[in-house]
Design brief:
alpha/beta, Rossmann fold, 2 domains, 17 helices, 5-stranded parallel beta sheet, single chain, 47% helix
């Protein structure tokens, strides 16, 4: 890998987690190898990259379901790095471009064993993508980009040159199955965006940082996303009354389009304003007293990496429940949160996401018993934070050190990228 290496980077547009990991890898590429990658993506991934434009040579919008456009995007690059976005990995296979696939939820995919059957449709599609003639590969690509998400993830894992997955539990490695074994994935540490330590933001840091996350994707109806954010933010506004966080020191950020749709209501005690960049967010986070966010794996890892206690806001989709359950394990007292909402067991992803958001909205409606309990719990937590903060940090650090192993995932991913580039050039 050298400064002239043409690396194409992308991320799944689901929340801010994948794009935050892509930015971490891009920053590591720039600082360690003086390589600026190209970026392509849509939705929250594209927006996140444009806010950190200095990390990239160029940024473009992608076409997840257009095989011909995807082919043009990957052609001529030395390497594709995809953070959980299947489309570019599939196109890279069709164009015979090396691909590093980075995944933080590998432990959670519930692929059935039969998906790995050699004569099954997915494995036959993989065969055509990787071993077929040029015409067969591109025909297979047109089929693969339209697969349902879980199957697309499996095929992308299988056709990538190398898969790296972020650890999430030394005692909870990915469930052994034929499908996971076939992916030959390599574990790495937590992927954290290490912003330049020499840079400092002016002014006081918010004492309580709240993120409503991306909450904008193809599986989420905007009305339910807005309802979730409104309910949660109103609950926080009530909870900080009478605490040191009332009136100043509480900053709410997240998806700018979503936050702009919220009504003012009685939340003037909160500063509701998206961060200009992920770098600004990480700098504010490093100086905060506490971080409150939905239990996304990236939010948890970022909070841990800068030594700030994490408080779990209500879930936003089915994966959050699994992440939180594994996070707490037998250490529930170390990870307080607002535990409302229900996780549906059936339905497609869009339907399940809607049901999760709707259940949170119902639980946090004005006058609901669960809302009263949530306000009291958060207020009690904030009131005792000054006294309990050091102990809470130590407990969370102990558990998260076990789960993640290290916070060096970005540098480990870049080392793998370097090896792939070196092999490809030989």
């Amino acid at each position: 890998m050298n400064t002239n290496s043409r690396i194409l980077l992308t991320a799944e547009p689901y929340g801010f987690g994948p794009s935050s990991k892509a930015l971490a890898i891009a920053r590591e590429l720039t600082e360690t190898h003086a390589v600026r990658a190209y970026f392509t993506g849509i939705g929250t991934a594209y927006s996140a990259a444009t806010r950190e434009a200095g990390l990239f040579r160029a940024i473009s919008t992608s076409a997840r379901y257009d095989a011909d456009v995807l082919t043009e995007e990957v052609r001529g690059h030395d390497l594709v790095i995809s953070v959980m976005e299947p489309s570019l990995a599939l196109a890279a296979a069709a164009e015979e471009v090396p691909c590093l696939y980075v995944d933080s939820l590998f432990w959670m995919w519930d692929w059935p064993d039969e998906i790995a059957d050699f004569q099954g449709p997915e494995e036959q599609l993989i065969h055509r993508l990787t071993d077929g003639s040029r015409q067969q590969r591109h025909g297979a690509l047109r089929e693969a980009v339209n697969l349902p998400m879980h199957k697309a993830q499996y095929v992308a894992h299988r056709v990538a040159t190398q898969v790296c997955y972020q650890r999430y539990g030394g005692d909870a490695e990915p469930t052994r199955s034929r499908a996971r074994d076939a992916c030959a994935a390599k574990p790495i540490g937590a992927i954290i965006d290490r912003v330049p330590t020499a840079r400092r933001l002016r002014g006081d840091s918010p004492a309580l940082i709240v993120s409503v996350s991306g909450l904008s994707n193809e599986f989420t109806k905007k009305s339910y996303a807005t309802g979730w954010a409104q309910s949660v933010i109103d609950t926080i506004a009530d909870a900080i009354k009478g605490t040191a966080f009332e009136g100043s020191g509480t900053r709410v950020g997240g998806n700018a389009d979503l936050l702009g749709t919220l009504s003012a209501g009685g939340r003037r005690s909160l500063e509701i304003k998206p961060w200009h960049s992920h770098e600004d967010f990480m700098l504010d986070l490093s100086r905060a007293a506490v971080f409150a966010a939905p239990p996304g794996i990236t939010s948890i890892a970022e909070s841990w990496a800068v030594g700030v206690p994490f408080f779990a806001l209500p879930i936003q989709h089915y994966a959050h429940a699994s992440i939180l359950q594994r996070l707490r394990g037998s250490h529930a007292e170390a990870f307080p949160g607002i535990d409302v909402g229900a996780t549906p067991a059936t339905g497609d992803l869009s339907e399940m996401t809607t049901n999760v958001l709707d259940s949170v909205i119902a639980d946090l409606r004005e006058g609901a018993r669960a809302r009263t309990a949530a306000v009291d719990h958060l207020r009690e937590f904030l009131a005792g934070l000054a006294e309990n903060r050091a102990t809470l940090i130590a407990r969370q650090d102990l558990r998260l050190s076990q789960l993640f192993g290290s916070a060096d995932g970005a540098s480990e991913a870049v080392r793998e990228a370097h090896l792939l580039c070196r092999v490809a050039s030989q």
